[in-house]
Amino acid sequence: LQRYILLCAQELPAGGFRDKPGSSRDYYHTCYNLSGLAAVTLGDRANPHYPNFDRLDVHTVFNIRQKDVRRTDAFFAKEPPFAPPHPLSTEKDMDLQGRK
Predict the structure, then answer these.
(1) Alpha carbon of 34 to those of 3, 38, 76, 86, 92: distances in Å?
(2) What is d(CA 11, CA 63) in angstroms, rounded to the nearest whole number?
(3) Which phi and psi angles does 10 have, rounded to 5°?
(4) For 41-60, what is each residue's pLDDT tens digit?
(5) CA distances from 97 to 17, 46, 49, 68, 93 (A)
(6) Read out DSSP for 34-94?
(7) Three-class SS state of 1
(8) Could you tell me the CA-to-CA distances from 93 to 14, 24, 84, 87, 90 in Å, in that order?
(9) Of 12, 28, 62, 93, which is least packed with CB atoms within 10 Å of its CB?
(10) Counting Cβ atoms within 10 Å, is residue 92 exposed (0-12), middle (13-18) or buried (19+)?
């Protein structure tokens, strides 16, 4: 994965990452390529050329700080489960919360 990200996904010399050779770089793929690179380098502690990602408090799946993951979890734990309206319902059948 490291090799693919650094050799195929990286946009040089301009910077940024893309999903595959031939496509354009964008913020979405830059974010997720960097997340993937961080995740795979976590296990390579013997290599002195990689930074110490253990000191970063970043969730490797969501690519945000751990405290923000905890805050988001706490927020949604207070909310009722989301239930999308029935596809045959009309707007006048529902109140502002989307309930009948």
Answers:
(1) 13, 6, 27, 39, 46
(2) 21
(3) -75, 135
(4) 765 566 666 555 555 677 76
(5) 39, 53, 52, 26, 11
(6) HHHHHHHHTT-TT-TTS--GGGS-EETTTTEEHHHHHHHHHHHHHSPPP-PPPTT--GGGS
(7) coil
(8) 52, 45, 14, 12, 5
(9) 12
(10) exposed
- Work out the average pLDDT over 73-77: 92
- Which residue matches tokens 């013997």? 46
Amino acid 19 reads D
> pTM value?
0.48
Cα-based distances in Å from 37 to 4, 55, 67, 78, 88: 10, 16, 21, 34, 45
In three-state secondary structure terms, 98 is coil
